[in-house]
Amino acid sequence: MYPKERRPRRLYSDILRCFSRKQHRESFEVFLDLLLDGSGRPLPERATVKSPAALSRFLNHAAWNTRQLCRVMRRHAQETLQDFWRQQPHQRPRLDLLVDLTSLEKTGKFSELADWVHTFNSVHGVHLVVLYLCCGELRLPWAFQVWRGKGSPSPAQLALKLLRTVPAALLAGKRRPRLHADGGFESAQFIQGVLSRGLDIVVGVRCTRKLEDSRQMRDLIVRGSLVKPSGLDQTMCVSWVWLYRNKEPEQRFVMSNLNLGGKYLARLGRRRWRIEAFFKTVKGRFGLERFAQHSNQGVMRWWCLSGMAFLLCHFQNLDLPVEVPGTWPDWGRLARTVRFSFVPEVRRRALQLELQALDTFQHALTPLDTQTARCQVSQVAGRRMLGHQAHSFRSARTNGAGARNTLPRLAPCFGRYLTVSSWSIPIRACSMPFLLATKHTTAYWPGVRFQVTSSAWPVVSTWAKTECPKSTGGGPD
């Protein structure tokens, strides 16, 4: 039934064609690697293969088509849904359309996102109206709209706009699709708009919603009662459930244009919670609310790529399920599987850079020449090794500051001089030491060891070797 190439691979191949330039594809792969980390923190600062500035340019300024990316994801979602229906031609599963508003809380000032950041239901941030398709085991994020505050289209109006993006081929069939929404979408305009499109509706409703006979919803006694809410010409079936999340039970009402009976309608109303599970996953695993971009285009692209990461993992779960069917999958495990399948080179390069940094750190802490022995040369041995440039030195009682002045005057005998990169340990009084100013060796003062190393290695509290012209003068005074 399916082509030889699996669904996630086909989707990934088509998405890569949205990026015509090589540097855009590389930035996309690095950002996808961050999204598929599964920790919910795909921050550009965590990237090692690409700089954070490069990822910021990719999201905010790069010239690639965001709409084309969305069209590719919708096309694959539609094909997957239609393939799923072809497998069950005699008992085609019903398509459920779930609509809800989710808030991405933000603190601080966002001057360039001022038209998007508002306060709704005591939450300050960006508020999205999302359309989510469910059919059997399929979970397909379809589209979203940004609520722009008071004076702009309401969430219910934005939801009707999202319904117009669903192709007619998905709404046709013997079993009418059913729309699920919560109490924020109970307006008469929204319900009439949904029914006019040939859809059934199951929507939450406030307990204070007035009926045509001046009663309220909470005055009903029998579940499954057929009533007419005020402002609606359609007779609605009403039921309710009791939630025991708090100390006191809470009564939640739900109504539908279908006479489904009180018990079945109450059970049907719970299906809306599937979109809440999607919000929890896409926020907690794929960083939907972690956007830190300074432009509308950058934020929009962040959301689209976050939804794409969810879709890739969901397709992977459909082809190679890792959990028992009917259970919510382990999205962290799925994300790692997709990560190793599609962006292995990014992971390999990131691990190589990390190993290089670890080797550098260990190299700086541990002397490379473990055979180096403590070397203290007497004045006589020093004269023999230095030849005519040897000098007699008196015992010096000095501190760390004095050592800075003494050593650079001693070193011209070798044609090199030593400087201090940082100093934290005072040098005690000692007789004349002999420092081997060679690369990657260890020199000693009494009680203190110093590693002489090239300036390429970031060694703290060591002597750093630098070149200087040959000195023809004598030693220190």
TrEMBL record:
InterPro entries: IS701-like (IPR039365), RNaseH-like_sf (IPR012337), Transposase_11 (IPR002559). Residues 97-311 form the Transposase IS4-like domain. SUPFAM superfamilies: Ribonuclease H-like. This is Transposase IS4-like domain-containing protein. It comes from Deinococcus aluminii.
